[in-house]
């Protein structure tokens, strides 16, 4: 305060605020270093003998999976440059590209694509990264993948396309994007379900109203109900 002696920051306060004076955090594993985005310690841990594809005990993630999960882009680039396995999957069949799609880590998705990630790779339910981005409503992530040339009509084990997942979860931005990319809201799965069928049956038509004419909604709702009662 003005006029008050010694009102400025004390020497100890300045020392605490100085990043150089802070105690360095030492991570216990390669996965911790990647989650924190610490490339230097990542490099040091690998130099000490840690495997670049080491799987953690709890989540069964590799360092590359954690980089995609946490958005540690610099670590992800370092891992890819040093030969991390981009195809290795978790117990659920997720590659790093699946995890980046779930988390909406756009920059990581772009880096993985540039390094040859297979965007048609399927997890244990047959879902590709495209399905997962649509499920979680990450429209920009979805757009990055679509622009890379991946087929938007790819199906999972139930013959659900990304458009089904976008409609089912009410992801309007993703749904609009997929329709713009040529996906049809009239596609049905092996049970005869429409992409918006379950939402239409429940009366939740707000997702589809901007995209289709009311007559089509009414017609397709009847079709969906008929399939469910057959």
From TrEMBL:
<feature type="repeat" description="ANK">
    <location>
        <begin position="92"/>
        <end position="124"/>
    </location>
</feature>
<dbReference type="Pfam" id="PF12796">
    <property type="entry name" value="Ank_2"/>
</dbReference>
<feature type="region of interest" description="Disordered">
    <location>
        <begin position="1"/>
        <end position="21"/>
    </location>
</feature>
<feature type="repeat" description="ANK">
    <location>
        <begin position="125"/>
        <end position="157"/>
    </location>
</feature>
<protein>
    <submittedName>
        <fullName>Ankyrin repeat domain 42</fullName>
    </submittedName>
</protein>
<feature type="repeat" description="ANK">
    <location>
        <begin position="59"/>
        <end position="91"/>
    </location>
</feature>
<dbReference type="InterPro" id="IPR002110">
    <property type="entry name" value="Ankyrin_rpt"/>
</dbReference>
<keyword id="KW-0040">ANK repeat</keyword>
<feature type="compositionally biased region" description="Polar residues">
    <location>
        <begin position="7"/>
        <end position="19"/>
    </location>
</feature>
<keyword id="KW-0677">Repeat</keyword>
<dbReference type="Pfam" id="PF13637">
    <property type="entry name" value="Ank_4"/>
</dbReference>
<dbReference type="InterPro" id="IPR050776">
    <property type="entry name" value="Ank_Repeat/CDKN_Inhibitor"/>
</dbReference>
<dbReference type="InterPro" id="IPR036770">
    <property type="entry name" value="Ankyrin_rpt-contain_sf"/>
</dbReference>
């Amino acid at each position: 305060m003005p006029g008050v002696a010694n009102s400025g920051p004390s020497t100890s306060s300045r020392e605490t605020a100085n990043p150089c004076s802070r105690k360095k955090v030492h991570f216990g594993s390669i996965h911790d270093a990647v989650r924190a985005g610490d490339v230097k310690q990542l490099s040091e841990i690998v130099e000490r003998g840690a495997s670049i594809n080491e799987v953690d005990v709890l989540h069964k993630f590799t360092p590359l999976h954690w980089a995609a999960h946490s958005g540690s882009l610099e670590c992800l680039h370092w891992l890819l440059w040093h030969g991390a396995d981009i195809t290795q999957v978790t117990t659920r069949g997720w590659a790093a590209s699946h995890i980046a799609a779930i988390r909406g880590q756009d920059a990581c998705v772009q880096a993985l694509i540039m390094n040859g990630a297979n965007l048609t790779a399927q997890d244990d339910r047959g879902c590709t990264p495209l399905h997962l981005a649509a499920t979680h409503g990450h429209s920009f992530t979805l757009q990055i993948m679509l622009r890379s040339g991946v087929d938007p009509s790819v199906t999972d084990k139930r013959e659900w396309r990304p458009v089904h997942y976008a409609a089912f979860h009410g992801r309007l931005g993703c749904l609009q994007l997929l329709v713009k990319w040529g996906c049809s809201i009239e596609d049905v799965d092996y049970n005869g379900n429409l992409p918006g069928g379950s939402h239409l049956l429940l009366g939740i038509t707000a997702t589809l109203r901007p995209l289709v004419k009311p007559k089509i909604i009414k017609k397709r709702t009847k079709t969906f109900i008929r399939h469910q009662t057959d």
